[in-house]
Amino acid sequence: MERYIVQFKRVRRSKHLRISVNSDAKIVVSRPMWLSERKARYFLEEKKDWLIKQIERIEAEGPRLLAQGSRSDYLQNKEKARRLVLDRIKHFNQFYAFKYSRLSIRDQKSRWGSCSHKLGLNFNYRIIYLEPDLVDYLVVHELCHLQEMNHGPHFWALVKKTIDNYPVLRKRLRKL
Predict the structure, then answer these.
(1) Which residues touch 149 (CB under 8 Å, ≥6 apart)?
(2) Torsion, Cα of 166, 138, 63, 51 (10° steps)
(3) Do the beta carbons of residue 154 and residue 148 sit within 8 Å?
(4) Which residues does 65 contact at the CB level (< 8 Å), separation at least 6?
(5) Where are the alpha helices (DSSP H) in 62-165?
(6) Parallel, antiparallel, or unpaired for β 120-124 and 113-115?
(7) 156/115 same-domain check
(8) What per-residue confidence (pLDDT) applies to 27?
(9) pLDDT of residue 21
(10) Backbone dihedral angles phi then psi of residue 18, each to the nearest 5 degrees
């Protein structure tokens, strides 16, 4: 693991040791406060084969859309993303008529969108770089979370009411 960048983090609320590989192939080892770095390094060594496979996959796929962009790109495109999302919410909410408390446009590296228990809708500003059918899927997905805060059968039935090919779109989005 000598040739790779590895970051060790102590996480106050963590209960378990966790290893992840970022989209830039940087390895992050998160550990609870009570676990020694020596044990974390041993665990990292045990997972070496898995890590190498993950890094090779990331390098073969190339940079992902979620990992691209800069602070200035975010600041320049935040309002454009807000207008796009508001337009699509207005369109689909004619059908669903769900109430939400607020809309946030964020610069996130690992999520396209989310919905909070306080009925806040959050979207990644990079949504402006997606094809229109993927934008619609994302907006409908988060709108449906206003009624179903899970990914159970009732949630997917709600999504299907306006986006009948959602499984195909979901797969395409995961590849970006």
Answers:
(1) 115, 117
(2) -70
(3) yes
(4) 126, 129, 130, 176
(5) 71-96, 132-145, 153-160
(6) antiparallel
(7) yes
(8) 87
(9) 79
(10) -140, 135
Q: Which residues contact 31 (CB under 8 A, 6 or more apart)?
A: 8, 9, 10, 11, 14, 17, 18, 37, 39, 40
Label residue 40 exposed, middle or buried (CB < 10 Å: 0-12, 13-18, 19+). buried
Tell me what the mean pLDDT of segment 42-65 comes to.
Answer: 80
Count of domains forming the chain: 2
Is 1 a member of any domain? no
**Per-residue tokens: 35:** 């676990």
pTM for this predicted structure: 0.70
User: How far is the C-alpha of 82 from the C-alpha of 166, rounded, in Å?
Assistant: 23
106 and 122 Cβ atoms separated by less than 8 Å: yes
CA-to-CA dists, residue 118 to 95, 105, 143, 149, angstroms: 22, 16, 13, 11
Is the same domain home to 75 and 122? yes
Structure tokens at 15: 């209960």
CB atoms inside a 10 Å sphere around CB 29:
19
Residues 80, 128, single domain; the answer is yes
Q: What is the pLDDT of residue 67?
A: 62
Range of the structural domain that residue 54 is part of = 6-62
User: Is 9 in a helix, a strand, or coil?
Assistant: strand
